[in-house]
Amino acid sequence: MASRTPNSRGRRPAVPEGLNETWAKDLTDQFRRTLSTKRMNALTRNTTQQQQQSPNAPPSYSSLRNIPLVATAPSDRNSLRFRSMLLSLSNTPCRWENPGLLDEALRSIPLERIYDQAQEESDLFLAEAASLGPNTKPAWGYQDCVVRALMKWFKRHFFQWINNPKCGACHAPTIAVGMAAPLPDEQARGANRVEIYQCSNAQCQAHERF
């Protein structure tokens, strides 16, 4: 069977060797524009529907009742806990912008296979749209198919769901026994809490942190 060069398909982009700042910035700008357009369209639809239902009624301010007039720093326990969680979650996406981690992630992803599957699915959508008429657009574009192929690979091949981890010493099933605070190295990897499991083998009974 003849080998296929990476440029044998016109619409498929070349596999990136590294993730540079320009590529990431362009992708971020596209995402922001798409998200902004969707939000504006949703707000326009909601405003139009409200005006049609009650054109003379004043706007509802029920959603603003619990907002203080002057911003104050949180002081109670629940507010401080929520603030801490919000800051932690806000910092999480910043780690995804680390060029070294992005390059390492790209090395783990079978990009050639992802692009091949996306191209095949995109061709099917194009053929389906062409059969419905000259003005019919495909249900999904090529970039959509890339995301779909990446999602399938992640869920079916890369990711594995675990309820109870196996014992690291004897590989026997484990039983949940409680929770524990994360160790410093676990916190560095993003862990907020750690589940403790004990080996069900009576001859082992080792503990696993998960």
TrEMBL record:
The lineage of its organism: Eukaryota, Fungi, Dikarya, Ascomycota, Pezizomycotina. This is Uncharacterized protein. Residues 36-46 have a biased composition (Polar residues). Gene3D superfamilies: 1.10.1740.90, 2.20.25.10. Residues 1-23, 36-64 are annotated as: Disordered. InterPro entries: Papain-like_cys_pep_sf. It comes from Aureobasidium melanogenum (Aureobasidium pullulans var. melanogenum).
